[in-house]
Recover the amino acids of this structure.
């Protein structure tokens, strides 16, 4: 059973920065893509950023230029550096890892005050 443990959420003022981390453990199979999604009440979960094992990245238009996703393959860990945060970035952020199945973290709250 794969477990994803997230950390790094919190409360920050607009314009500030936060760094999220997510470590995957227990996978019998290679993890290909890892990434971050976010969700606000009443809305669907949306993609924030993903990164493949080879380092190819994909970002939502709303975070391009502000967020950076990275990973350490040896540690099965993915990071999300969030800069120039805006109130509209407020959401629960979920880590995702893909192998044979999709795995999700428990979510970490990010709140950006104006």
């Amino acid at each position: 059973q794969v477990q994803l443990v997230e950390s790094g959420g919190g409360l920050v003022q607009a314009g500030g920065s936060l760094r999220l981390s997510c470590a995957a453990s227990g996978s019998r199979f290679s993890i290909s893509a890892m990434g971050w999604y976010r969700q606000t009440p009443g809305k669907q979960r949306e993609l924030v950023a993903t990164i493949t094992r080879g380092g190819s990245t994909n970002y939502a238009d709303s975070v391009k230029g502000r967020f950076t996703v990275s990973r350490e393959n040896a540690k099965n860990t993915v990071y999300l550096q969030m800069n120039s945060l805006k109130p509209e970035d407020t959401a629960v952020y979920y880590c995702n890892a893909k192998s044979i199945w999709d795995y999700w973290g428990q979510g970490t709250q990010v709140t950006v005050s104006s």
